[in-house]
Amino acid sequence: MYCCYADPEALVDPDSVYPIRPECKEDAPPTRFKPMPGKTLSARRWHASFSPDGHLDIAAVLQRIQRGGVHPTIKGAVWEFLLSCYDPNTTFDQRDELRQSRRLEYERLKSKCKEMEPSVGSGVVITMPLIQEDGRPVETFRSNNSPEKAPETEQPEDVNGNAEVSVSDAKGPTQTEKEEPLIKSEPVNEVVVQWKLSLHQIGLDVVRTDRSLVYYEEPLNRSRLWDLLAIYSWIDRDIGYCQGMSDLCSPISILLENEADAFWCFERLMRRLRGNFKTTATSIGVRSELMILSNIIKEVDPKLHEHIENLDGGEYLFAFRMLMVLFRREFSFVDTLYLWELMWSMEYNPNLFAIYEASNGSSGNIDGMDAGQTDGNTLKKYGRFEKRYLQAGQGGRVNHPPLSIFLVASVLESRNRYLMKDAKGLDDVVRILNDITGNLDAKQACKEALKIHKKYLNKVKVS
Fold first, then answer.
1. In whole angstroms, what is the distance from residue 403 CA to residue 451 CA?
2. How is residue 437 annotated by DSSP?
3. pLDDT per residue as tens digits for the range 362-372
4. Which of 338, 256, 440, 336 is nearest to 71 (CA)?
5. Which residue in 17, 156, 265, 270 has a CA-CA distance of 20 to 30 Å to 106?
């Protein structure tokens, strides 16, 4: 008799692929995603989607992902295409050549960073400031996995229980004593100073990121994440490093075995999201998405929007976290991976690879860039969400609101009854939204987001 679980890959429990530390299981959100035979993109179907010379049938892949996600064994390889690291309409040889070129470029960048800060690539995670604002070195050093011997005197501990290690000479002046330097310092390079000032914040975030996963019990895995973020901070001078980036980079670092491949995949993800992290003296970039969210709710659910405004929540700051880290706190680790690949498959635009390549490798925004035109023969190569913009006559640009904003709108709509009845202030709004953690179905959330998107486009078109 035919067994619906004939494909052995379908029997893999995702939680066993990304295991949770035993002491953290009780607090971890439950995982809902399970590979589904006949729906989830399996390794067998993935490999069958390539022609003999390597051209990928991206339309079939997108369709399968939108039905049931990606099997854990192939997520990394699939994500590289979803994030437009590679063009499906190329051969194996062409992609291998590009991959090798990128790996060499990454090693060059890493060597450059290591020249400026030897900790890069050394297997440690810096969690203390290396330099002061004026560029002078700080005479303290701590790494959460440094092999250095602690001093004989007892040292104070930080909130994580890590001892701070002083490196000052016992016979020399203390750090608080003033002494004229014997050697005049070199002129300060402000770009390098700003980069070095960010490194300890990266370290502080790295040791907190996904710490419930067994994967990060290995110090080298933490140091790899630190390296990826430190090097990205160096190449993206306008943005640098901001809190939240470690949450976005961590899954990619885990899924892609080669460090250079993981770096370029993260860099492509940041092409989409970096605008949210761009700050000025008076604002942060994500506020533009919050304004769009406000307009969407105002159009599709005027009563809810009015209620939120009456609670002094018209700026929708309670949705800040969801947009900044793409729902990392609302879903389990496994379900976050599932949600992201659903989103990216629905947002897929086959022209983005060429756009990224045309920008000469810079980590600039793609807002306002032409995403090209299409016809009936190529429409199937677009994700369902992106296809809606094309059909609405808005597909020529790539700066339209992303699916993540409509996902937040779907979350608000799913809690409409509680928000309207129980929310008497913003604290109540936050409490009600916090209750969704572990209680959302990723696929259903995407379906509802598409419905809101369609309703919104229709209303905007009419107005």
1. 11
2. T
3. 555 554 445 55
4. 338
5. 17
